[in-house]
Design goal:
It comes from Enterococcus canintestini. This is Seryl-tRNA synthetase. Keywords: Aminoacyl-tRNA synthetase, Ligase. The chain is globular. 19% of the residues lie in helices and 48% in strands. The mean pLDDT is 95. It is built from 1 helix and 4 strands, in the order E-E-E-E-H. With 73 residues, the protein is α+β, with helices and mostly antiparallel strands. It has a single domain, classed as Transcriptional Co-activator pc4, Chain A (Roll).
């Protein structure tokens, strides 16, 4: 049985790609089920009515990812 959930996209940060059907891979700040917002990376359908699987990162996890990416340069 599918569980109901809610989400609110609080800030749209970046669109990383878009396919020919209008689905976009986006980095956003999202609150899931009324919880504190997190960085969220996933595919979204047009108008954000559908979503694919993705990952969420806390502020600390996002900072660690940023640091790791900078060290690769």
């Amino acid at each position: 049985m599918a569980q109901e959930f809610s989400y609110e996209i609080l800030e749209e940060i970046a669109v990383l790609s878009e396919n020919d059907k209008g689905w976009r891979k986006e980095l956003n700040i999202v609150s899931w089920n009324g919880r504190p917002p997190k960085f969220d990376l996933r595919d979204w359908g047009p108008e954000h009515e559908k979503m694919g699987k993705g990952i969420t990162l806390s502020n600390e996890e996002f900072a660690a990812l940023q640091k790791a990416l900078k060290e690769m340069e």
